Amino acid sequence: MTSLILDIETGSLPALALAKLMPEFTAAKNLKDPVKVAEAIEAKRAAFVDDAALDALTGRIVAVGILAVDGDTETPAIIHGDGDEAALLRETWHTLTAWHDSPPSGVMVTYNGHSFDLPYMVRRSWLLGVPVPLWVRRGRYWCDSFVDMREVWQCGDRTASTGGLDGLGKAFGLPGKNGSGKHFAALWDSDRAAAETYLLNDLKLTAAIARKMGVLPL
Questions:
Q1: How many helices (DSSP H) and strands (DSSP E) are in the chain?
Q2: What is the pTM (predicted TM-score) of this model?
Q3: Do 215 and 152 meet the contact criterion of CB atoms below 8 Å apart?
Q4: Less crowded by CB within 10 Å, the N or C end of the chain?
Q5: What span, in angstroms and rounded, lies between the C-alpha atoms of 144 and 139?
Q6: Are the CB atoms for 209 and 168 separated by under 8 Å?
Q7: CA–CA dist 211, 201 (Å, integer)
Q8: What dihedral angle (degrees, nearest 10) is formed by the CA atoms of 90, 58, 194, 7?
Q9: Read out DSSP for 166-207?
Q10: pLDDT digits (tens, 9 = 90+) for 180-211
Q11: CA-based torsion, 177, 146, 130, 115: positive or negative
């Protein structure tokens, strides 16, 4: 029985596209000094650009990592679409659907996937005209096969902190993350091997946590 670990990595839209989406920023009304007003507006612009990768309206999916787990065997795959995000999404949905339609399948495990990875994939698919398989979400609910380790840890208490994937992993005595995904797109462009290593480590860390918590067999 094969289970999947899924993780997406994102980047901001190209500068020209991002500029078209940027709101008109203003400074606080109590600022009167023109220099301080300009600095305040520039700070807001910089923050908008810095956070663009986290929002499906201003970001894009650079790569999708999938780790197939069957007992002790782990088989990784990285989907990138050769820079074509729509192609990346079509291949990802095809891969997930093939897994879903080939019982007995296990579970698809994410970390914060219900709040980030899956909504991001669905929204980018809508924006790019890529069909989203009907089984993925019905009404308010994700497919029953999807398991979010963040929610499993919270045990129904949405205020419970996990310390992120890195913190939760270290709490279980695991090595933790080997970097930050905030600037993954730049790393992907400058050092593809390092970016793939980072993504694979996140997948393996999520799988190890899932084993520790009984979601995947030891």
A1: 8, 7
A2: 0.93
A3: yes
A4: C
A5: 13
A6: yes
A7: 15
A8: -50
A9: HHHHHHTT----SS-STTHHHHHHH-HHHHHHHHHHHHHHHH
A10: 888 899 999 999 999 999 999 999 999 999 99
A11: negative
Written as one string, the DSSP assignment of 72-134 is TEEEEEEE-GGG-HHHHHHHHHHHHHHHHTSSSEEEEEESSIIIIIHHHHHHHHHHHTPPPPG
| The two three-digit tokens of residue 76, written as one number | 């990784």
What is the rounded distance in angstroms from the CA atom of residue 181 to the CA atom of residue 174? 19
Whether the CB-CB separation of 4 and 147 falls below 8 Å is answered with: no
d(CA 78, CA 63): 7
Six-digit token pair at 110? 């994410």
Q: Which structure tokens are listed for 40? A: 């305040």
Amino acid at 81: G
Helix (H, G, I), strand (E, B) or coil at 67: strand
Sign of the dihedral defined by the CA atoms of residues 76, 80, 81, 87, in that order: positive
Q: What value does the mean pLDDT take over residues 116-129?
A: 98
| CA pair distance 76, 68, nearest whole angstrom | 6
- Whether 25 and 41 have beta carbons less than 8 Å apart is answered as yes
